[in-house]
Structures
1.
Amino acid sequence: MLRSYFRRVPLLINRVDKHFVNTTAKKTPSLDNYLAALGKGLDFFGIHGPTADEITKDLDLSNKTCLITGANSGIGLEMTKVLSSRECTVLMACRNPYAANMVAKNVCGNSHRLKLYEVNLASLRSVKKCSDEILKQQAKIDILILNAAVFGLPWTLTEDSLETTFQVNYLSQYVLLMNIEKILAPDARVVIVSSESHRHVSWDFNNQLTPTEAMVSLPKSQYTSIRAYNISKLCAIHFMHYLSYRWLNSGKSVFCAHPGTFVKTRLCRNWWPYELLYTCMRPFSKSISQAASTPLYCATSPELNGLSDVYYKDCRRCEVSDLAQDLHLSFRICDLTKNLIRDRVSLTEEARVKELAAFPDQAKHTIDENTLVANYTG
Ligand SMILES: NC(=O)c1ccc[n+]([C@@H]2O[C@H](COP(=O)([O-])OP(=O)(O)OC[C@H]3O[C@@H](n4cnc5c(N)ncnc54)[C@H](OP(=O)(O)O)[C@@H]3O)[C@@H](O)[C@H]2O)c1
């Protein structure tokens, strides 16, 4: 076995060389390009699994509509490209739709299959506006991929007074889903792009019994960017459990998918040591196309019909951490989430009442707070 691997080494060198000459060398040569080429060469041994293209090769998705958050970059962009090439209509929910449009037109062959929506997940107001637009324009969504995320940010609060990583990676996408739930197809699939890093959260027993805002939306004194990221990914798995319970007697299903570790995307852009680490790990980690394969497998594979509430890694079913398995905790986290949202919506409404007092002409557009809360929390 070892001997057969060694026999492949000259082929590997050849492959790295060829890939570098054919592709990356056309751009400015850089460490990143060399490492990408080396990674491609190493994958000659097939260690990183299939690509998104390979996993969806036999599918015709011409009658499907898929909404993807963070569809303009990295794994989200790759999924957009592959799904649109299978004739799926892709609704790209992006922070900067103009930039996203330019990127998508360059990368995706079937750009007529794409539609852009603007959303800033660091703002509940923006999430509401985006979901209203989607509800107005779309009759049905078959696949929803909650993919957007941030990592490595310094501590910041959003305009809704929540820690940014928590709100962007989890809470706002919870709100988006609940807002558009009524147009999810009866057999819709929801995929939450998750991460193995959910395993690194430790909460003591008392905290698990009564989760608080400070445990999920970290105050500055307890903040590290890794901790905030891990917590957001743990909450997302609990959201999967909650949804699958909510949809128990329906045809809707929900999965979590870990795309891969140290996949070199723009996720690591916020802090140079992370950028360096991800660059150095490039030869040993999945390519973006390989990373997109597990979420797309969950979103489209007929093999998963009838299943729900499952976590996938490398296109295989996988156990989540003990903390992520606790269904009681799932309900407590969802209750906490609803309370956090309710508080924020009331605050928004309070600000609006003040605004109306100053500009009475707008009174005819007053929104009923109960409807608003129901929209946000489902
Ligand atoms: N890369 C990895 O090694 C890895 C490992 C495990 C899990 N994952 C997960 O894979 C998913 C995709 O990540 P990626 O690696 O492809 O990273 P990426 O290239 O940085 O993509 C993240 C996307 O999220 C969007 N986003 C960030 N903040 C936003 C906001 N406030 N409002 C709206 N959109 C926002 C980004 O939009 P902008 O372009 O506007 O910033 C971007 O489109 C994430 O859920 C991540 O946690 C990645």
Note: The pocket of NAP is lined by residues 70, 72-76, 95-96, 119-122, 147-150, 168, 193, 195, 259-263, 265-267 (CB under 6 Å).
2.
Amino acid sequence: MRPLVAHIDLDALRHNYRLACRCAPQSRSVAVIKADAYGHGALACARALEADVPAFAVACIEEALSLREGGIQAPIVLLEGIFDADELALVDEHRLWISVHSAWQVEALLSYSPRQPIPVWLKVDSGMHRLGFSPEQVASVWQRLVDAPQVTALHLMSHFASADAQDPSVFNQQMRVLQGLADELKAPLCLANSPATLAWPVAHGDWNRPGVMLYGSDPLEVANDVTRQLRPVMSLRSKIIALRELDTGEQVGYGGRWKAPRPSKIAVVAAGYGDGYDRHAVDGTPVLVNGQRCPIAGKVSMDMLTVDVTDVPEAAIGSEVVLWGAASNGAVLPVDEVARYCATISYTLLTGVLPRAPRRYHGANV
Ligand SMILES: Cc1ncc(COP(=O)(O)O)c(C=O)c1O
């Protein structure tokens, strides 16, 4: 069998979720498991967390229904609400919660007669200018929803554009808008994503919505004492399948991007962009070979990548190679670090791992 496997540590997931809760003891934290739990497998992650979490959050009804089909009973909120008025029947049948970000969604909801009132998170555009009602529109929409028999457990919800940044100016501006609305309407809030959960207690509301931190990625520009306790959930591991001895000046891979600066030993690893490993990885992007850091040498191919193992004499065919996450010997290569070498963020690497890399689950409930 091809040796590439995405190992998913469900105990680490539960540890990270509990850390998020400890950061915000006055809030309830939904576990954000959209996009197949950021590539980790939504159903397995939901099963591992269900005993601890008061609710899950997904992007759309398809994601919610597959959780219900898998037996998940906990409340599930649709972060983008309905995409079509017809979905309300399913929302009602499956006891889903919805966010409402647009006028047409309000009209659809108020024209529908659910069997039981639907919990609603009213989305405010507090400055990100993506989804939500403008602050000036919120009070009138809020009042209509408060008065509507279709609606229960109404909250104000918003999303931060820069909660991860050290410069607090954008965050503070959004927070001023939201605090003003919360005071005026006496509205309970749901605001904090992972960086706000970790770094901005002022944003902790009735509910928080941590996502990426649950998977062990540190969303802050500068790590702190809490983020250093996060544990990687996905460890993307493969093996060396071939070795090459090169003379000084010989080149490796497509376009010959890497040229040996000295007599070198190159390992070929079974992992490539056809598995979701980022083709933008530059020479020097780290991997762990037998737990030791080694640099990628040459462009990533579809099924393989090449690594300079000159300084790891014991590297051999079959040696373990960790693309990110934890090695068998306990060494860790943070996905955030790999992302920086690929000029991207951990979110794209984690959600980008393709089904060709099978997930293997360890820990809680498996
Ligand atoms: C509306 C909303 N809430 C919460 C989250 C979770 O954010 P994070 O993964 O940064 O914690 C996201 C993620 O994109 C989101 O779109």
Note: Residues 169-185 form the longest helix (17 residues).
